[in-house]
Amino acid sequence: MPAPSSAQFPAGALPASGGFSVTWDSAPTPMLDRAAARFDARTAILAGGARAGASGAAIPVRVHVGDDPNVLTVQAKEGYTLSVGANGVVLNADGPTGVLRGFATLAQLIRAGASGPELAFATISDAPRFPWRGMMIDTSRHFMSVETVKRQIDAMELVKLNVLHFHLSDGTGFRVESRVLPSLTSKGSHDEYYTQAQLRDLVAYAADRGVRVVPEFDVPGHALAILLARPDLAAQHPVDPNPKNKNNAALDPTVPGTLELIKKLYAEMGAIFPDQYFHAGGDEVSPKQWTTNPKIVAYMHEHGFATPQALQAAFTADVEKILASQGKIMVGWDEVSEAPIPKNVVVEAWRSSKFISSATAEGHPVIVAVGYYLDLLQSAGQHYLVDPYDPSSVGVTREQANKMLAKGGDPVLINAFLNDPPPPPLNDAQKKLVLGGETPLWAELVTDETLDARFWPRSAAIAERFWSPAAVRDVDDMYRRLATVDTELTALGLQSEVNTRRMMARLAPEDPDAVQTLVSAIVPIRNYRLNRYSGAHGDHLDEIAEIASPDPMASIRFNALAARYAAGDHSVAPELRAQLQAWKDNDAAYTKVATSRGLVEAVPVSHDVATLATLGLNALDGNAGASDAGARAVLDSNLAQLALSTDITAAFGAANTPVAGVMIAFAPGVKTLLGK
């Protein structure tokens, strides 16, 4: 994972207990030497400690590398071919980055064999579908350590993601040491920031792994942290340092000092981040920030700006000129495209897939984030079916929009999400402008401790959508492979499992296993409903819903096995029965340990899990009709909540929030067993 463009797997394998021996057709660069060392270390872990020179012969890996003057650009050559046979491995890479991609695939061919670790025979020809395959880390809302960010970069290399979109400033915090404008750091960072030396090291670390780092410094909205240092540039005076919504504060685009600050800031940051692309934000500028300031309104009248969007378009054009003069290409969120702006501004579509269509129709390159927002807590399967070329895949219908308006939703925002009628398919010229996509993770409910689990393994599934052919869309097969990839990523350094286990032990030190068993049966509520739940319950970030995964593998497997059972494959009955019995029996253990805040709220959920497990056991025993009405009501309620969770409009005026902010994930499998 990602699935290669073309792959054949003939019978046979090489014993891998002796590790690998890499040789080069031409002298490798230091970067390639380091890549080979990482490959050696990683394959030793995946093969159970095998190393070259250990018992058994090392597998020879011969590498040929083509030239690539565009390394670490959007034009980088990432294609490769890989042949594994009786005589060893031959890797032909179009460029140095292709070596990294080939090594990642080669590591995934290691498997456990009857006589120990082995490397499967394969013939692979591979290249990415899209050149921009990113993930976005938000370190403004919750600061993430350098070590945590590096872990994500390591995992990105392993699944062939190649852009780290680093969101470094927002209303909550400005996270970079600035020497040109030191007050941005001293007043806007809250003493949590990266030094310039740390960031240069991080950029080099990412470059070694074929990952480009694109920084984002958001203007003119989301500017509170900047305005704490420069209140004279605020659209609203005085600047409230602790507003109810820290995202609203905006810069005043009509005063010369605003562009002067941006020019100095971007020049300094552009020197730290050498990538050609630079993200300037541009999202969610509250019109009231400008329309309730008489001086800004007068400026708009004087210069012929009929709407705030027109004023922002002019501001965007000025920012683009600044970045162009500094050798950068501007990226902005899709709000920047709501009025005419320079054609070379890259538009990142996030609110509705229709912006893929409208922006490319205007000639803009596009990055697709809509459909891949990990903080929505949607399942990997839901993200997996969103294609970057599909302008109709994500958005709300007119009927949904009307419901949202009736619940008090913002008409401007709802109109941006409206995708009714959906645009026609992209033509070939528009498709050429789609650079690829990103998985954003906004960090309101994410900390250093939970970042790994919120990014992974879902980012691996989305990485396949960005890399592999469009026809690779089998969700069941994706989950089958994702479970293995998740295990490999954990073995190679991700801390999702260890951090989650620590959270469980902190809440239930006497029996964290009881928490783990319950968590295997549940998912957190989705589409920002958990944000509302958390806000109403003290904003604690260490409760059962934060521990729960959007993709609990035990429940996913149970639902798949239940479908096989219903289709006539009764060989899976013992595994189904064992899982149901474990969930049923866990209720007593969980109730005993769930005495702390964060766990006690989920005691009713544990009871319901036991109830549904009993329903499933009855069905396996042929007694489906013996279930009482109360148990059936529990099942129907959970099925309804799961159905609601696929609808993004549930975030607007959501009512009847499930207990503890979680839902029972294996309810569909129980329904299948009951024949409902």
From TrEMBL:
Where in the sequence is the signal peptide annotated? Answer: none
Is-annotated flag, keyword Hydrolase? yes
Start and end of every Glycoside hydrolase family 20 catalytic domain? 130-469
Q: Which UniProt keywords apply?
A: Glycosidase, Hydrolase
Query: What would be one Pfam family of this protein?
Result: Glyco_hydro_20b
Query: Where is the Beta-hexosaminidase bacterial type N-terminal domain positioned along the sequence?
Result: 1-127
Q: Give the highest taxon in the source lineage.
A: Bacteria
The entry sums up its family as follows:
Belongs to the glycosyl hydrolase 20 family.
Fetch the PANTHER family from UniProt: BETA-HEXOSAMINIDASE, BETA-HEXOSAMINIDASE A
What is the protein's given name? N-acetyl-beta-glucosaminidase
Organism (species): Acetobacter sacchari
